[in-house]
Specification:
Structural class: alpha+beta
Number of helices: 9
Radius of gyration: 36 Å
Largest sheet: 7 strands, mixed
Strand order of the largest sheet: 6-14-11-7-10-9-8
Helix content: 25-40%
Distance between the termini: 90 Å
Strand content: 25-35%
CATH class of the largest domain: Alpha Beta
């Protein structure tokens, strides 16, 4: 039993005694008897004092028994040295270690949304940093935009796809229900490899003040994200059904409205509904006005997502507006499926640029992106001029 508990009980008993004493002294000084209320106060104080005295006695008896047991046990106990605590190596120290000694590491992915508050200088893992940076330049690997899956192998992965619905009909009482089979297929994804080489001087690797993990994450995240987006963007635009072909190569306000309402409301009203287009196209679209001369583009506040016609709009690697170019897609972006295999692999070579005193890091990831339902996302196609 802790001495702190016993001391606390003594303090409480003394406070009860002081309360009773104050009441009695006040009545004596006034040369009067105690009132009924004062009698109750004093009785409660005396009862509290008796209770605390009993608790103190019990606590002291238990503490004495515990001390006796410990003394008895210590006569036979074998002294065992506690194992030294080992701290888990950080990604920064691991990156630096393989830069000096060589080796290969695989870091697990962390699926996280990209927000303004995501700080690359914070002590997060290199896989999370690469994922965040890549998502900032490529919405097709941003879990807040598309449906992102982490898988353990690079084998072919298939998602079910409905290419045509069956037909239902009203049936009279006792009438036969006719058969009407829809058409099914699948989206087949086989991950491809995206990688980059990053070289740093041997001095920087050994300089403890230099955050090498942050630098590798920043640079490789952008390069890997751009490489994947250059493949994923045109593939998604090609897989989507053309929802609107404009009278010119660049869309006007009416074209965007028509594109939105070419998508079935099941997908148009889904939580993942939004636009994707590249920066050049977005720069032109944000200048468009509606029929009341109001901007249809609204910038996100405090790092929030920009909106177009009330829907989120993201910048991705789609074609520029041009002759029959598929420059904009709109629909339920969660029907875009992205696979990421394993984690971010970081390997190092001290020999690749040995003569220059450079350490070469190879960062690579494997992934694939496709559209599960072609009707869920539709594209704007420029005019044939």
């Amino acid at each position: 039993m802790s001495e702190n508990l016993i001391n606390a009980l003594h303090d409480e008993r003394q406070r009860a005694a002081a309360a009773a004493k104050a009441v009695l002294e006040a009545a004596a000084e006034a040369k009067r008897d105690l009132t009924a209320e004062e009698n109750e106060t004093v009785d409660r104080a005396f009862a509290d004092m008796d209770s605390k005295a009993a608790q103190i006695a019990a606590a002291e008896k238990i503490e004495a028994a515990e001390k006796a047991a410990l003394e008895s046990r210590s006569r036979f106990a074998v002294a065992i040295e506690a194992p030294a605590k080992t701290e888990r190596a950080t990604d920064e120290s691991e990156i630096r270690r393989i830069g000096i000694n060589g080796g290969r590491l695989v870091f697990d992915y962390e699926r996280r949304d990209v927000t303004k508050s995501t700080g690359l200088g914070n002590p997060v893992g290199i896989a999370a940093r690469v994922n965040v940076v890549a998502g900032q330049v490529n919405p097709f690997i941003d879990a807040s935009v598309v449906d992102l899956y982490s898988v353990s192998t690079g084998n072919n992965f298939q998602f079910p796809r409905v290419t045509a619905l069956g037909t239902a009909a009203a049936v009279s009482e006792a009438g036969a229900i006719g058969e009407s089979d829809g058409t099914l297929s699948s989206l087949s994804l086989t991950p491809a490899k995206y990688g980059t080489l990053i070289q740093v001087t041997d001095e920087l690797v050994r300089d403890a003040a230099f955050d090498i993990a942050s630098m590798i994450a920043e640079k490789s995240g952008q390069e890997v994200g751009i490489a994947h987006g250059a493949v994923a963007g045109p593939a998604i635009a090609a897989a989507a059904t053309v929802g609107k072909q404009g009278a010119a190569v660049a869309p006007v306000y009416a074209d965007l409205v028509d594109l939105v309402y070419s998508v079935n409301q099941k997908y148009r009203r889904g939580a993942g509904a939004g636009f994707i287009m590249n920066d050049a196209t977005l720069g032109g679209v944000r200048k468009l006005l509606d029929s009341q001369n109001r901007p249809i583009f609204e910038a996100g506040n405090l790092g929030g997502v920009d909106t177009l016609l009330g829907f989120p709009v993201y910048s991705g690697a789609l074609a520029d507006t041009g002759d029959e170019a598929l420059s904009i897609v709109f629909g339920d972006l969660k029907e875009i499926k992205t696979l990421l295999v394993g984690g971010v692999e970081v390997a190092v070579s001290n020999e690749y640029a040995f003569a220059n005193g450079l350490v070469t890091y190879r960062v690579q990831v494997r992934g694939a992106t496709g559209l599960a339902q072609a009707s869920a996302v539709k594209s704007f196609k420029g005019a044939n001029v």
